Hints:
Blueprint: E1 11-13, E2 16-18, E3 22-27, E4 34-40, H1 43-59, H2 67-83, H3 85-95, H4 100-122, E5 128-135, E6 146-156, E7 159-163, H5 169-182, E8 186-190, H6 197-209, E9 216-218, H7 223-231, E10 237-241, H8 244-254, E11 260-264, E12 269-273, H9 279-291, E13 301-307, H10 311-323, H11 343-358, E14 362-365, E15 382-385, H12 392-395, E16 402-408, H13 411-419, E17 423-424, E18 427-430, H14 434-441, E19 450-451, E20 466-467, E21 470-471, E22 484-492
Parallel strand pairs: 7-8, 7-10, 8-9, 10-11, 12-13, 12-18, 13-16, 15-16, 18-19
Antiparallel strand pairs: 1-2, 3-4, 5-6, 6-22, 11-21, 14-15, 17-20
Amino acid sequence: MTIPFTDIDRLYIDGEWHAGAGTEAVLNPATEDVIGEAPVGDATAAEAAIASSFDAFENGPWPRMAQAERTAMMQKFHDALYAKRGQLVELIIKEVGCAQAVTSNVQVDAPLEHLQSAIDYSLREEPHQIPVASNANMINPTGPRILGGGTVVREPVGVVSGITGYNFPFLLNLAKVTPALLAGNSLILKPSPFTPYSALMLGQIADEIGLPRGVLNVITGGPDVGTKLTTDPRVDMVTFTGSEAVGAAIMGQAAPTLKRVHLELGGKSAMIVREDADVEAAATMAIMVLSVNAGQGCAITTRFLVHNSIRARFVATAKAVAAHWKVGDPSDPTVLMGPLIRESQRAKVEKLIQSGRDEGSTLVAGGTRPAGLSKGFFVDITLFDNVDNKSTLAQEEVFGPVGCVIGYDTDDEAVRIANESRYGLNGAIMTADSAKAYEMSLQLRTGNVAINGGIGKMAYAPFGGYKRSGIGREYGPDWLREFQQEKTITYPVGR
């Protein structure tokens, strides 16, 4: 049976489907089977996509529509995607190798909620009036004063290039499409070559709803395509989700043309487990979080800062939970964790696991490949105790299911250790004293903190990082402003 959307063999440029320069096999990371031959773009395709986006912005109707018109079109976009929800789940299980529950809830439903929340917020966008005031006449300072006022309007930035990673492709792709298009920009979307289909299918949606040509272009390709999208002077903004190293490179490439850069990068987030925490709940949550998409998530908490009075019990419980966590092919609905995306990623993870051994940490669980899985890019859930926060394992983003347990004695020490990282994306605190946790949260240099698992509608909350975890915010009430310019128009009042 054909996997949904894997029959797409062309790039979506200027409202039409164009052949790529070649094709590349896309693998199911759980089985290593080829699920499709995806089109691969080149510099010619990038040039065509940029020209199309530039023309759509300069001459097309999209940036000139009233906000309500664009919002109505994006509601159609949402509804068309929602109608294909089941197909998207099926695709991502095969394309990403993500367990079924995580795929349904996080890979598909959450992005659709984020799109809907942005649609809701977009209808609240209104010009802002600055106060009316009596001002001196600059031409005739001693003459009659002038009564003046003004309006602040928000306008689209222009042509945006969106470059995304492989771990949550539908989420990341929509995180580029949603705000860019709602704000009136045109967008060129370039997905990871590991997960092209969850981006290319968006071209089908654009066709289905009648999106004006050139507003959304979807192309694939390698570094030559990426470099074109980050350096061409017709591109006004680059929005990227991926690794810290690539984010830094993109900033360098964008600098000569002074593009706006929006980055959502890596993390080495800490979960603080206080001495009054429910140890069993905290340890179970630690393993559950590590297993999400096999640890391939920038916001996953992988440093467990555990009060020394309960650390031994935490470690023993986490080890026991990990031993019962089912790892395997996510086509099986009972599987709780699937594989890493490719052999290259597994090699990186295994190298960092070895660094933990070499630097003196105590291996508690995992550290090997699961037994009985001869195919697929699997690793076991791995946990180290007695980890030095200055070690490689504690400072580098592994992007795999590998956790570090670090002991502490006081709340101040826990906060200090949590902040001793070049990243600052996410954080968590487990405790019976939620008021104290809130106070500690204010001291953590990170963009997000969850107390006792967190609550609330995350689709309506901003997300982003401090330090080298990124620039800007996604989601929430001000999301569109990341993709807008502000213009002040002043005028005399009364004449």
